[in-house]
Amino acid sequence: MGLSKLISSDSDSSIHSTFASRYVRTSLPRFEMPKNSIPKDAAYQIIKDELMLDGNPRLNLASFVTTWMEPECDKLMIESINKNYVDMAEYPITTELQNRCVNMIARLFHAPLGDGEAGVGVGTVGSSEAIMLAGLAFKRQWQNKRKAQGLPYDKPNMVTGANVQVCWEKFARYFEVELKEVKLKEGYYVMDPEKAVEMVDENTICVAAILGSTLTGEFEDVKLLNDLLLEKNKQTGWETSIHVDAASGGFIAPFLYPELEWDFRLPLVKSINVSGHKYGLVYAGIGWVVWRNKSDLPDELIFNINYLGADQHTFTLNFSKGSSQVIAQYYQLIRLGFEGYRNVMDNCRENMMVLRQGLEETGCFNIVSKEIGVSLVAFSLKDNSRHNEFKVAEMLRRFGWIIPAYTMPADAEHVTVLRVVIREDFSRTLAERLVLDFKKVLHELDLLPAGEGSSKNG
Ligand SMILES: *Cc1c(COP(=O)(O)O)cnc(C)c1O
User: Fold this and answer.
1) Is 280 in the pocket of ligand 1 (CB under 6 A)?
2) List-wise, which residues carry N6-(pyridoxal phosphate)lysine (predicted)?
3) Residue 16 has pLDDT above 80, yes or no
4) pTM confidence score
5) Cα 174 to averaged position of ligand 1 atoms, centre (Å)
6) How far, in Å, is the centroid of ligand 1 from the Cα of 51?
7) Cα angle 266-271-273, degrees, rounded to a multiple of 5
8) Rounded mean pLDDT of the chain?
9) Hey, is 344 helix, strand or coil?
């Protein structure tokens, strides 16, 4: 047997280095399940290596979603990774932890609960599922009322700003509710409460306000909306109420702006959603929806199941899911406490201000986001005749930064912004570094011939 025969032989089980095996020499299966097994260390190595080409989550400044948690919590999550959340009879403690989270979040949002009274709400996969559930509750409530009054109930609509997150458009299409959107205008990128209330009619199941617009982080004026809608309800005899999409702001406002009235302190606010995986400080996979009272959640949406060993109520769109995120949310709530969340949110705000000032000082940007709101900086180029925001975003990728550029919705489509979301794990050093890299990019763009930096695709 010659040497070359030996090397190319397929007896890989005797070769311990994955990189000396045939597994790194052939392309990976993409369309069909392979016939034979491969060693676990080889499988691990080749998948891990391909994943190296993903962006670095910590430098992904496009996302609100948590990318860092304490190692102790990582440990708890790994330890519960094999628990199916839906097996509530088998894992009653996990269910209990979810209920405690609901209680705490309902009280954080000032739900009118007595001492020791349980909050009304549920853990979901994220705000999107939470919003589907809240929307369904409004739709069913409205239909029940219309039926009882002998009125048509086939044309439900919902009023929002054109700045709503895509999940509201999904809700509208999947559950056949017309979305009536208040248009934006240049310089005003949230729902105008006066225009929203004008659009309300007898078929409106609710008005959805956003606490922390996805596009600019700005808080909508829920208090004004509440007051105008109260007035309109008095005149018309309708009972149109409000949902607050507090996906990002729900874990910011209570700590940084406790005086701001946006939650159940306002009588027309019936339900609120928040993403546990945004400023709730848990990895992707958890959201919450809470209702003001039991009466705001129609009974017929709740299912009782008994085949898991005990009577259980469920009100979710899916059945099985992981438990780790629920457990991690409980960890964060009791580990950080009010004090800890306030400090984290304060730090995010401080670092947002450092970045904001640094960008302002370049003299090249208009800052579109407000100082009060979600900790992010949204900004446009003052002069985009020579180069545009998409090119700036593309050039920053070279330094590792992942920063999105996008156009605003109707009627402000001609405005393009760059957006940097400040999360817990984005420190001052990184903020200062980012400003330096922005300056480098601006300088390089100045040296480029006009036009080369202004195509939409860079
Ligand atoms: C992120 C976000 C959502 C969607 O939330 P997920 O938790 O990602 O499903 C909905 N609304 C707003 C305002 C958001 O910022």
Assistant:
1) no
2) 278
3) no
4) 0.94
5) 17
6) 26
7) 115
8) 93
9) helix
Please tell me the residue having the least CA distance from ligand 1 atom 15. 214
Confidence tier at 252 by pLDDT (50, 70, 90): very high
Question: Which residue ranges form the domains of the chain, and what is each CATH number?
Answer: 3-54 (4.10.280.50), 74-333 (3.40.640.10), 348-447 (3.90.1150.160)
Which pLDDT value is given to residue 351?
Answer: 97
Can you give the pLDDT at residue 458? 39
CB 377 within 8 A of CB 438: no
User: Quick check: 251 and 280 in contact, CB under 8 A?
Assistant: yes
Provide Rg for the chain, Cα atoms: 25
Q: How far, in Å, from the CA of 378 to the mean position of ligand 1?
A: 17
DSSP reduced 3-state for 357: helix
Residue 158, both tokens:
């919902």
Residue 47 tokens read as: 């998948």
Place of tokens 């990318």: 67
Q: Where are the alpha helices (DSSP H) in 25-126?
A: 40-51, 71-79, 92-108
pLDDT at 453: 55
Report whether 417 contacts 381 (CB < 8 A).
no
Is any ligand 1 atom within 6 A of the Cβ of residue 163? no
CA distance 25 to 245: 50
Taking only the tens place, the pLDDT of each residue in 339-363 is 999 999 999 999 999 999 999 999 9
Closest CA to 336 of 281, 285, 387, 409: 281
How many residues would you count in the chain? 458
With 0-12 / 13-18 / 19 or more C-beta atoms within 10 angstroms meaning exposed / middle / buried, residue 182 is buried
Query: What's the pLDDT score for residue 20?
Result: 87
Is residue 351 within 8 A of residue 428, CB to CB? The reply is yes
SS3 210: strand
Tell me the CA distances in angstroms from 371 to 35, 68, 219, 375, 405, one per residue in order. 58, 25, 11, 8, 20
Cis, peptide link before residue 411, omega less than 30° from 0: yes
Tell whether ligand 1 has an atom less than 6 A from the beta carbon of residue 214: yes
- Which residues make Cβ contacts (< 8 Å) with residue 49, sequence separation at least 6? none
Name beta bridge partners: 312.
305
CA dist 25 and 83 (Å) reads 37
Of 64, 67, 165, 321, the residue with max ligand 1 atoms within 8 A of its CB, to mutate for a pocket test, comes to 165
